Amino acid sequence: MHRTLLTCLLVLTLCTTVAAQQITLTREQIIALTPEWKGDRLADGRPNVPDKLLARLRNISLEEGWGILRNAGYNNQFEGDWMVLKPGEVLVGRALTVQYLPKRPDYDKVIRDKGKAENRIGNFNSWPIDMLKPGDVYVADSYGKIVDGTLIGDNLGNSIYAKSKNGVIFYGSVRDAEGLEKIEGFNAWVKGYDPSYIQEMMLGGINVPIRIGRTTVLPGDAVLAKKNGVVFIPAHLVEDLVLNAEFIALRDQFGHQRLREGKYTPGQIDQQWTDTIKKDFLSWLDQNPGKLPMTRQELDEYMKKRTW
Predict the structure, then answer these.
(1) What is the pLDDT of residues 163-181, one digit of tens each?
(2) Phi, psi values for residue 223, rounded to 5°
(3) What distance in Å separates the CA atoms of residue 180 and residue 80, rounded to the nearest whole number?
(4) What residues form the annotated binding site for Mg(2+)?
(5) Is 307 helix (H, G, I), strand (E, B) or coil?
(6) Annotated binding residues, as ranges?
(7) Which domains does the chain have, with CATH numbers?
(8) Which N-terminal stretch is annotated as signal sequence (predicted)?
């Protein structure tokens, strides 16, 4: 308990002082913010959720992801009501978080001077782009500003895709939407579009905790973005979430098939399964190995802990 309290106080102290002293949290600070992640980390300290898990996450529905997070006590990880550049495409990746604030000249000067000392190039909205790695998603809180709040146009969009092979999620706006649409593989979830340029804004911090609507996002969170919304998943929960969601999808496939065949009634499928149905489901899994999104070993280990 004493150690936990000290860790919390350290993190709070770091987060309250970082904006005036640093542009981005250090590796050690990011590790302190995400202590439940036990796997590999990126060079900057963010959890490195494996690419194979991210690929499987792409097939998880928003409802499944949201429901599993709610059951784990994470009630504030979904944000809807987006303007999506390419609604038919899915975006997954690791969050590189950025906070923007309304401009205050004295604070803005501190940040710009710090950026100059660190040899950062261009305007502050391009600094996060220089830090992107393959698989990253540039996630920015620009406090819903639309007019004069356009974080990128097609030039920066091309740079983002070149570095991350991914897209962006902005609680704010973009410009040059037609040009952005032409970038193959790039996608954007934003709150609006405007032809204006960014004005009266400043950088608050990079790889810091941010708010995206009704969600809290930490650096390294896994992002699942589809046309109806975005779920931000704490890195340490991704593997269990994927396995749970994949198992639920398998149960649903089996149940739907048996209902179409008339073997069971809706009441039998919608309630706690009998031993007969469970046995039938296990047999169905053996007969349909091509339907498994996970390895059979992963499924067997998972089912040892599942209570149905």
Answers:
(1) 999 999 999 999 999 999 9
(2) -105, 130
(3) 21
(4) 176
(5) coil
(6) 153-156, 175-176
(7) 2-234 (3.50.30.40), 239-305 (no CATH)
(8) 1-20
